[in-house]
Write a structure and sequence with these properties.
This protein is α/β, with parallel strands linked by helices. The protein folds into 6 domains: 1-45; 53-135 and 239-272, Periplasmic binding protein-like II (D-Maltodextrin-Binding Protein, domain 2), CATH 3.40.190.10; 138-232, 3-Layer(aba) Sandwich (D-Maltodextrin-Binding Protein, domain 2); 283-366 and 468-502, 3-Layer(aba) Sandwich (D-Maltodextrin-Binding Protein, domain 2), CATH 3.40.190; 369-462, 3-Layer(aba) Sandwich (D-Maltodextrin-Binding Protein, domain 2); 518-729, MetI-like fold (Orthogonal Bundle), CATH 1.10.3720. 53% of the residues lie in helices and 15% in strands. The strands form 10 sheets. Strands 10-9-11-8-12 form a 5-stranded mixed beta sheet, sandwiched between helices. A 5-stranded mixed beta sheet has the order 24-23-25-22-26, with helices on both faces. A 3-stranded parallel beta sheet has the order 4-1-5, covered by helices on one side. The N and C termini lie far apart (172 Å). The model is unreliable at 21-45 and 504-511 (pLDDT under 50).
Length: 730
Amino acid sequence: MKKIVIKKKISFFLVFLLTLVTCLSCLSYLKIDNKDQKVMAAEEKIKPKKKEYSIVLDSTYAPFEFQNAKGKYVGIDVELIKAIAKEEGFKFTYKYPGFQAAVDSVSSGQADGIIAGMSITEERKQSFDFSDPYFDSGIEVAISKDDAATVKDYEDLKGKTIGVKNGTTSQEWLNQNSEKYGFAIKTFDDGDAMYNALNVKAVDGIMDDAPVLDYAIVQGKKFVIVGDKQPAGQYGFAVKKGKNPELVAAFNQGLAKLKANGKYDEIVAKYVGETKIKPKKDSYSIVLDSTYAPFEFQNDKGKYVGIDVELIKAIAKEEGFTFTYKFPGFQAAVDSVSAGQADGIIAGMSITDERKQSFDFSNPYFDSGIEIAVNKATKDIKDFPDLKGKTVGVKNGTTSQEWLNKNKGKYGYTIKTFDDGDAMYNALNVKAVDAIMDDAPVLDYAIVQGKDFVIVGDKQPAGQYGFAVKKGKNPELVAAFNEGLTKLKENGKYDEIVSKYVGGSSSEKSDDVDETTFAGLIKNNWKPLLVGLGKTLSLTLVSFILASIIGIILGLCAVTPIKPLRAIATVYVDVIRGVPLMVLVFFIFYGIPHLLNHPLNDYVAGVIALTLNASAYITEIFRGGINAVDKGQIEASRSLGLPYLKTMQKIVLPQAIKIMSPSLINQFVISLKDTTIISVIGVIELLQASKIIVARNLQSLRVYFIVGVMYLIVITLLTKLSKMLERRIQ
């Protein structure tokens, strides 16, 4: 009986033990299961629901997203989303439509997420779900480096004027603290105006978002930050409210990892902690063409305008760099950059593989194209096939000529080549050709200016125009151009500039004076023509006086009994007369500065070239004049005991000058005409001034007739004056 009781107790204990183990196992299982469920739940929360997400970003908010010199989008936001996607293993496509368009894309469900320096606000939280903040923007005060010694903190701003953009957090902070620190506030509508105001010290300081100010300093702005950064909200990644929660979770988890492994700090420091495209010069020198309407030309007030002119000004303002510019003409501009006398060129310059060997180009800023134009009176030419049996005019050495030669067999036309656009356009006016082919913007501008042309057929692709620098030089200038160009296209300023010149009636066309008449041309252009004439006369007189001095000295050397001096004069004359004047001009203006590594003023280079050229001929004139004097007089003088120099001074030269005067007058006239060659290096003498006028109004026949008459009058008057002097000398 006792054994039975013991057995029951043991059985009960075993059952209890078994039950306890079972319960513990169940509890353990439940705990493990519960834990696994939580893990699974977490994994399900950040598990991508799409194979690929669409992310949108701003396009022009440096340093968060912007285009670099190669046209590639870079910035904090760009690199951050790429790094997080790689870390968390999700795929995405991205677009850069601009901030507002990006916000609207997410709001309408056309995009899954946005990262664009977007501040996290209570108002935005009504429409978007935000990630954890990835950037504390903050606001800062910046001053000029020149004031860094006297302004160290906010207390030092007493009595100062602080600039701020209207409607910003910075403005709110300044309004709240103006009495505390005793500064005045000046409000600006945009950042460019505010930054420029600090540049010229129209304000003593400015307040803006910290990353934007930091990036401006990185890019070369001579600013320094004073005082502590003030909190002003945070930037976050966002999705449409209630949509794609797994994307926000993945962003948060990836962001935490990047901050832990140091990758986040590396990305941020890359754009606001070190120099990237900092300008290397306080001011850059930019050269442009002078007669390539509608890209650059002088308007009826003598001011240079055009697509290129307004574009480089707008980009410089947008990107905050300063520049000076000249308009020497296309070839002279190209040579200036090649020789290092200018930093960049924007002159309707086509981007070609050949030019890429010598230049670094920006992103294209204009798709040129080529077009066929016919006279309005022409009714039988509507398209390319209608050109069969017709004559088509084209400028020599152009893309249009290449296209016409290539398609000549296909369409059956004949080609007539011209050296310049004026002659080609006039040929179409008088129907010497049936059609012409030229760059589309140039033809479009000609039509805007009143040419009775119409475009037939489709525009043919013919390359793109780009801003350029010498290869390997000024990469930061190309980067700034690209970034500024992107901003202008985004905000519509680019389209506004282009349409101003090729989109309708040009605002640069004179409405007050009819330039299709001689009276109108003279009334509207007499000032630039007289300025050009003055430059022509100045070049002639200065160079001729210098050439006469050199010519007299070398002329005397040429007839001296001393052989080394005769040899020097002979070599000088042979070398200078053997080199064409244009080659001499190019060598002096581009070659010598390249050797000396110092630029040479174009006017000075022109004077030197004209002086050297004329002096060689004047040397020969003096030599011939001296030799024309009877040698018996020299022998008689020497026999009377007069020295050689006295003989030359008292006996030979007075007679030689009488003999030489007609030749010297002729050489003076030749020097006057030779000044037209100096225009190749950008000196705006009379001929170049007329070319600039023609580029605007296309009235080549009338303009060149007026210039021809001016040359005729001046040369006739000078000839009459010279003959009067000659009679006095005789």
